[in-house]
Design goal:
The complex is a heterodimer of chains A (121) and B (483).
Chain A: H1 2-21, E1 30-40, E2 44-54, H2 61-72, E3 78-83, H3 86-98, E4 101-109, E5 112-119
Parallel strand pairs in A: 2-3
Antiparallel strand pairs in A: 1-2, 3-5, 4-5
Chain B: E1 3-5, H1 18-40, H2 45-63, H3 68-77, H4 82-103, H5 116-132, H6 136-144, H7 148-166, H8 177-184, H9 198-205, H10 215-218, H11 225-260, H12 268-279, H13 283-310, H14 315-321, H15 343-356, H16 365-371, H17 380-398, H18 409-428, H19 433-441, H20 447-482
Helix pairs in contact in B: 1-17, 2-6, 2-13, 2-17, 3-4, 3-20, 4-11, 4-13, 5-18, 5-20, 6-7, 6-17, 7-15, 7-18, 8-9, 11-12, 19-20
The chains are: A alpha+beta (121), B mainly alpha (483).
């Protein structure tokens, strides 16, 4: 009897988690660990430590992920957020002020924007 | 916002870009469509007013990336007051213009019934917007930017409302007996079957027993200039806006501002400079707020004038005169608010589509008595929504921000669930953040502030749930990677 319940419980768990896997066919909001040098127009070359891919993401996901990533990096670290949601792009300078970091630049590319933020305090 | 361009190669002039030509093409399409409608019957000018104001709203919403969902959501999610400030600027401007329109005698505004249903509906609506990534108008202009996720939200809002207002079943028995008795005592035509359907009983048995009022009306001064200016505009709109702006500055902006400007002992002048910096921190949003406020007021004026010109109270009368009597309510009316409104016309789209599939909802009060189910080609406020989509598309194409974006399974799921909740919430609260908040507080109806309170409450809970989901799903992802 006990074994039966254990099997059922495991079966349900596997079913539920695989159901949720359906959602992640095209992952949005991946924060990948990268270290690369980027030449930001009007600012110079900076080393980016993290890149947050928010292509296709709806608000407030980009903002919350950015907060999370900024919490994980050290002082003076620069992160890059890749966005294709104009409304989210517009809000990033104001977001930077609140998160105690500096909005270095927003670089427009075809089909997306790259926002660079530096953790200041 | 300073935006740098990545490539240094010389670009084609604005006029010769593909996206600019597409923007011009969409704009020309609206002009040609308007001229065609006028050629059919010049009285279609009444419908075209909705189209063109919608187009202007869409242009401004996209220009300012004006997201009213983020106005309440971002206060909790990321503690950014940017959009809340933009929305308050729009409220103040709309209130001032609305005051002038009311004084001139062209106001088309009707106050909403005040009650608990507003808080509950607005909270459900506020919870929904966190998951959809935009409010009802936000979803329209984002759809114009090519965001298919937002298109799903619009579909969900349309059908959830249409089903919610007309469905009946075992849940009818969940209403209090007093509502049922009151609804039965209203002596409504039998074809409406007001004692069947949860929403019908709720409307006839509860909402109709509540009072809707403007502040001036509550003091018996609705017709006087003092009442309109002092009580409706200043007391109901401008004063709360000022208090909210000061509160936003004190709780969200002041600390960071003083640190950035290295002021340790700020004088009153510094605080005022800080408030000004807060209001102008996003120029696009502030400009859009001013523009939307003024246009929303003018919209009432133009529709009010046209109603006077044609001697009508409702577009339904004009439709009958033009020979279109399909889809009108039993009072020969259609939904025709005369000002910026979003959700009801979307419900009509859903209801109309359902009717074509054989599910008739004309026995509901919402469609059968009040709003009708007109063909979408004759649905004037519906064209305002389409105008918003097209206006946003013109602006997005002109600025090369248009991009077809397919939703992922996760965002699509959120769009449908969130959109459904938004639809249900909007109907319970008798409107969305435009019809039940923006248009009400600016016209002296305090029920809008109750709506805002409910929406903030719902958004707060929504943000908590959304953050939990994000943490849970990313923890799952990282544990999978660790295996």
């Amino acid at each position: 009897m006990c074994l039966f319940f254990r099997v059922v419980r495991r079966g349900v768990r596997v079913q539920v988690t695989s159901w949720f896997d359906l959602f992640h066919d095209r992952p949005t909001g991946i924060a990948s660990l990268v270290i690369k040098d980027v030449d930001i127009p009007g600012f110079g070359v900076v080393q980016v430590v993290r890149s947050v891919d928010c292509l296709g993401a709806m608000c407030p996901r980009p903002q919350l992920l950015t907060m999370k990533v900024l919490g994980e990096i050290g002082l003076e670290g620069v992160i890059e957020v890749v966005l294709d949601n104009p409304t989210a792009v517009e809000g990033f300078p104001a977001l930077a002020q609140t998160l105690d970091c500096r909005h270095l630049a927003t670089v427009r590319e075809s089909g997306c924007w790259r926002v660079y933020l530096r953790k200041d305090l | 916002m300073n935006v740098a361009l990545a490539s240094t190669t010389t670009e084609a002039p604005w006029l010769f870009r593909k996206s600019s030509l597409q923007a011009i093409a969409v704009f020309l399409l609206v002009i040609i469509g308007s001229l065609w409608a006028l050629a059919q019957d010049t009285r279609f000018v009444y419908l075209l007013v909705y189209v063109w104001f919608g187009l202007a709203y869409g242009v401004l919403l996209q220009y300012g990336r004006f997201c009213m969902a983020s106005a309440v959501r971002d206060l909790f999610a990321v503690k950014v007051p940017r959009m809340a400030v933009g929305m308050m600027i729009a409220v103040a401007l709309y209130a001032i213009v609305a005051s002038a329109v009311t004084l001139a005698g062209f106001s088309t505004f009707h106050p909403n019934a005040m009650g608990w249903h507003i808080v509950i509906g607005a909270a459900i609506f506020g919870f929904g917007i966190v998951f959809t990534g935009g409010c009802a108008s936000g979803s329209l202009y984002k759809a114009g930017e090519g965001n298919m996720n937002s298109m799903l939200v619009i579909l969900a809002i349309s059908f959830s409302q249409a089903i919610f207002v007309s469905a009946n079943g075992w849940w009818d028995s969940l209403v209090p007996k007093s509502w049922m008795d009151s609804a039965a005592a209203k002596d409504m035509p039998a074809e409406l079957s007001v004692t069947q359907g949860w929403f019908d009983i709720f409307t006839a048995g509860h909402i109709w027993d509540l009072k809707g009022f403007t502040t001036a009306g509550a003091f018996g001064m609705a017709e006087t200039a003092t009442g309109i200016v002092l009580l409706n505009t200043i007391l109901t709109a401008i004063l709360p806006v000022a208090i909210i702006l000061v509160a936003l500055y004190a709780f969200y902006y002041r600390k960071g501002y003083l640190r950035r400007t290295s002021k340790t002992n700020p004088a009153l002048g510094d605080e005022i400079a800080g408030m000004w910096a807060m209001c102008t921190s996003s120029k696009n949003t502030a400009i859009a707020g001013i523009g939307l406020g003024i246009l929303a007021g003018l919209h009432m004026y133009v529709t009010g004038m046209l109603r006077e010109h044609y001697g009508i109270f409702n577009f339904g009368e004009l439709l009958v005169a033009m020979g279109y009597d399909n889809g009108l309510s039993i009072q020969s009316t259609v939904f025709d608010p005369g000002y910026w409104y979003i959700t009801t016309q979307e419900a009509q789209w859903g209801g109309w589509a359902m009717q074509k599939f054989g599910i008739d909802s004309m026995d509901s009060i919402f469609f059968g008595l009040d709003n009708g189910l007109p063909n979408p080609l004759l649905n004037a406020p519906g064209f305002m929504s389409i105008g918003i989509i097209l206006g946003a598309a013109v602006m997005a194409l002109a600025r090369r921000e248009f991009k077809w974006k397919l939703p992922s399974w996760e965002t699509a799921f959120f769009a449908i669930v969130g959109g459904t909740l938004m639809g249900i919430g909007a109907r319970l609260a008798m409107g969305c953040n435009i019809g039940a908040f923006f248009a009400t507080v600016t016209n002296g109806d305090p029920s809008g502030w109750v709506f805002l309170f409910g929406m903030v409450l719902g958004a707060y809970i929504g943000v908590k749930v959304f953050t939990w989901w994000l943490d849970w799903s990313s923890a799952r992802k990282s544990s999978e990677c660790g295996l």
